[in-house]
């Protein structure tokens, strides 16, 4: 590399180290999200010139590595792993093929030490897909990709009868990934046996390479499909520990709550309510919060704030809505225009705007080598 190139990469590393960022997808492109200003009334986003030829649908962050799920013109999923600190990318080729039903997660195995550096951890990507074998029998195919060995292998995963929807994004916390899952269960109500969807958390443990037990939410686990949104995020607590957060509520209920974990691991979690917002009609603040199109959110524990990323009610603008922990509405910030993008459902094409989707906990520099392409 030339002296000029080395200087440029060095400047990028220094900037990444000094300016914590988060990444989000908006209009099928990848953006960096600069930190909110001190008064929390302004924020800037900047497009990342990384995947110009692809539509980026989802973005995940774990331990300084950013995983992007994209698609090409043939609508086939593509995976690219990015280390912004080292300015390196790696294209992840499938073992056989990816399809639009795949769910992905990124995490690591620290070998049981719990305190290894990022370069010592064994970082992995998990792929989960529903398939139908002989006689249309449902099967769950789970695969693990190891970044060190640049190879895939199939896991023998045993699970009970739960499902993870295709549009649900897993959230990485302490190297493991947590998913919002559901199961059709029987419930007795006033002497009647009713079948309702029960909702809960499922954690994929990257060290043991298996799913843990069902973890209950801190709210009624049968309320999740009553026209409400349930979406996950993560944040760094005041003690510097990664924790999980969940937003529950929506347009039908006329409120939303955010709960945060005090402790969390693949086998259990303890919760505390972070805020409750009772705005009545959400449209008075300029958003709807429908479960079918709900966006994502961030928790700022230090400043006692939460930021909700959504489409405005006209579906023409991407916005960030800022709320205080006391339930007060602080401000809304325009992030950019919302474009109508092509979507395919049941082999039919239609156009719709998608809400911005933000990665979870703030980005921090990583020394993990990807050794493929400089950007």
From TrEMBL:
This is F-box/kelch-repeat protein At1g24800. Residues 23-335 form the F-box associated beta-propeller type domain. The lineage of its organism: Eukaryota, Viridiplantae, Streptophyta, Embryophyta, Tracheophyta. It comes from the Eukaryota.
